[in-house]
TrEMBL record:
Residue ranges constituting the AMP-binding enzyme C-terminal domain according to the UniProt record: 471-545
Protein name per its UniProtKB record: Long-chain fatty acid--CoA ligase
Alphabetized UniProt keyword annotations: Ligase
InterPro entries recorded: AMP-bd_C, AMP-bd_C_sf, AMP-binding_CS, AMP-dep_synth/lig_dom, ANL_N_sf, ATP-dep_AMP-bd_enzyme
Higher taxonomy: Bacteria, Bacillati, Actinomycetota, Actinomycetes, Micrococcales
EC annotation from Swiss-Prot or TrEMBL: 6.2.1.3
Leading EC class: ligase
Gene3D superfamilies: 3.30.300.30, N-terminal domain of ligase-like
Domain AMP-dependent synthetase/ligase: 32-419
A Pfam family hit: AMP-binding_C
PROSITE patterns referenced in this protein's UniProt entry, alphabetically: AMP_BINDING
Amino acid sequence: MSDLLRPWHASYGPGVPAVVDLPDEPVTSSLARAAAAWPQRVAVDFLGATTTYAGLADEVARGAQALVDLGVGSGDRVAIALPNCAAHVVAFHAALRIGAVVVEHNPTYTARELAHQLADSGAVVAIVWEKAVEAVLQVQAETAVRTVVAVDLSADLPRRSRLALRLPVPAARRTREALRGPVPAGTPSWHRLVARTAPLDDAYPLPDAADLALIQYTGGTTGTPKGAMITHANLVANAVQGQAWTGAEEGTETIYGVLPFFHAFGLTLCLTYASRIGATLVVFPKFDPEQVLAAQRRRPGTFLPAVPPMLDRLAAAAETSGTDLTSFRYAISGAMPLPAATAQRWERLTGGYVVEGYGLTETSPVALGSPLSPARRPGALGLPFPSTDIRIVDPEDTTREVDEGELLIHGPQVFAGYWHRREETAEQLLEGGWLRTGDIVRMDDDGMVVLVDRIKEMIVTGGFKVYPSQVEDQLRAMPGVLDVAVIGVPAGDLGEHVVAAVTLSPGASVDLASVRAWLAPRVAKYAVPRDLVVLDELPRSLIGKVLRRVVREDYLAR
């Protein structure tokens, strides 16, 4: 990025630089610094069980040596299929410390879903939640996995909670069943390996900043599942950019880890950013508002990375219980548009800011954000991060810049390409390292970028282009409509018909005629839906994003 100022720099929050200085170091260097600077500060709090930074550094060193003893070397892939837990934090940093490549997996995936990712990455060791061990073992022969290591989630609980699990009462049995699963005899235990292994020698070589750190599987911008290659430099850059954006003071923050660590959003903001600033990470195995509020009463948080539905549910639960949320100075919302009403409610209850962040797995993942200042704008993608440049181009001719078109991103957080997929890498990474996002945007005069829609989900009907989000925005304002997904379905010579799938407020009744009447004065005639589907709920990703693709598949399968 050149030193020339861009239109968006003037809209940055106080003290945010246009360019950040990036250290030439691997991810784990920040953990070593934190352990040296704040050895007794709590690094991880898992449902009340705490680990200091000194303790975490020791466990990581032991975990690193345990992986070496299992034959893992620099460049080898280590699969992690775990819910959020202390063991996840340790395993992640341990693998990176020895130059191995972490491959994150959703621990609730089926055996077939895991088979593709494990085989594609060539992982040699898999660190797996007990409940997922059986699925991995079913497909192990189809992969390069030599060793499956089991993780007992209950081992990370406070001692009193572990003892309570042994009680012969229904509540203890249900909790035990939720945390644990059957493990074949002879399967090594991660906690036992870490406890019994001497720490890695400090002289063991560190990986280089340019080395691959992470393979994160994503649908990407083309819809084909593939592994995004993220380097140590990418992850360090995004953590440094995040620190500059938030103005976080090192050694003081308490981050709530409610987002799954196996997702790029949760991984960066909870694993790499947290250690970068010496934060206390409060870890939750799943998102449970009551569990989060209980932690808030015990160890108040200052920063919450989340998605809008999480903010809504937490706010509602806090209002009901009277829990004080004013310790949260800032929150970053991502994965979907942040409704203004959600932002206003959260800021009223906390007195802090909630801003939107935008990015892709391919940008490690944050590339743009709304400023943490009165200039924040719910619903907008935001401003490009420090040391990040953007272009808005014609999707059919990426050399031609336009006022409304596809967003291209360039910066130190942009990934290295797709694992073993040269052609798809070439399609997404243009000359000079510019990433095609597949998102249609425009930029306002203040440099704020606003999403119009995704190229792949744009509907073409009768030769006219329909952006689903524009129709959805109007339908969400219709009385009785709770949420909506607008899709295109084949319609012969016309190309596609517009179809709306809606969920309704309790007791509400909406039909196609009323939807068409509502939209007639609000959108172009060709954008008015030809069909309506009323659903009990819309399909969503694990972090709450509505899956239009699934809505379309279900509609066509009727």
